[in-house]
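Entry:
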Amino acid sequence: MAAWNLYRHRNSDGSSKDWAVRSNSDGSITTRWGKTADSLPGFSNRYSVKQFDIERQKQAKGYVLVGEVDIDVNGNVVFPGKTSATPSQLPEPDANLVSVPAPPVEALYWTIDCHAKQPIRVDLGIEVRRLIGVIQTLSDGHATPEQAWNGWQQWIDATLNAEVFELSGQIKSAHGVLPWLFLLALKAQGFKGVDIDIATETARDLSVDLKVEQDVLAFFGTNLDSIRETAGVLGLLKPRLNLATAMSDTDDCWF
């Protein structure tokens, strides 16, 4: 049996991109991605995720299973019936693999499938409006027309009547970092029955850990230190302890 499941996403302009996944003996998941070609240069190894779940997420984004394939250590894809990569050529989970750097981020794509029970949908709507209110306060209403992300109104309308819904959209660099942080803040809360996925155009799923998403921060022209206060207010980062302030409120304990 081939080692990888290969999926393909066809774009409206006729182009397509591929994504492949396999489970390893140590419990990790290895994925490869790239434009449809004889090789997939993108590479990552992840833990604490199940292959079934990650494949289901990709299918929800429009990826269709092509079939089972072999992929060698260089990312070359071999379909059954052709000269396949030998087992010795396939990377082992504990091998010293070198990850191919992901290409620069050019856009973010997001989807939500809200099929939660009614009480959770009510809570989701309340939290959506609370977060938007917090973000409006943080931004002081100074967004330019280019930064007018239409997702704000989409979320307000979709959660207004607490019905099940599905949404999807795009975040461009001109929209600024706040829409992404808003989606991450909702995703981090883990509402049961509310599946929120955010990915780059290469189908790399983004985590809620801002520390590992430096390339996305760069895409928005910012960095972790610059958005730390905002991320802290949204619950994405723990606030730093100011030792000077803390000690100034402490009585002298000298005897």
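The mean pLDDT is 80.
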